[in-house]
Amino acid sequence: MSGANPELSLVFPVWNEQENVEPLLETALDIGHRIGRPFEIVVVDDGSRDRSADLVLSKRRRNREIRLVTHPSNRGYGAALRSGLRAARGDWVFFSDADLQFDLHELEALLSHAEQVDIVAGYRAPRRDPFGRTILAWGWGVLVRLIFDLRVRDIDCAFKLFRREVIDAIPIASIGAFVNTEILVRARHAGFRIQQVPVSHRPRRHGRQSGARPRVVLRAAVELLTLHRELRHGDRVAETRTEP
Questions:
Q1: pTM for the complete prediction?
Q2: pLDDT tens digits along 109-146
Q3: 8-242 under CATH 1.25.40.10, yes or no
Q4: Which of 187, 216, 237, 244 shows the smallest number of beta carbons within 10 Å?
Q5: Domains of the chain: which residue ranges?
């Protein structure tokens, strides 16, 4: 099933997830075989200080569908996701987190919408994060809608499926938590179609969340303003070129 040109790539950024990575890969292999398409699993170890990379390599020895991309040091969630998306070879590219908060079997629900759109974006229904993180996410969503007019219910939900053409067409500059927003904003700006689908969400049982740290939030805000200026400048240049 792991031919040179897989139809489906499953991408997982990993950072210090040694408690989660083995069950993650078991589930990903199960769903890949159940779907019945040639597939690959791309794990990006973002400079983990635990045994995450070793566990992936051990699993890979028995399952050639698994590929490992490594960062020698921690470069950030956005950088890890970007590496995984660029390394993926499938006609369709799916990504999720390694923290087991999603049921990977619900990928089948995303695939059922795939032929009609370019991106199938999951939204957590209901969201099982701590109250403070949920409020922060709500405020972030409101800000993104105001600035970019992007009407997506759960921008940062790490359960998305893309046509290969989307990944090839858009640049990804974010190295942090802003990456989900950047991808959707750029894709919508380029005219790609987005379908939203509810997915289950579970509380994290192992490992630590880092998305609500002040430094992470500040970096996301800076990257948001940078993208806003870039797109606004690009639109102005396009308008100037089309003037008679």
A1: 0.88
A2: 999 999 999 999 999 998 888 888 889 888 998 999 99
A3: no
A4: 244
A5: 8-242
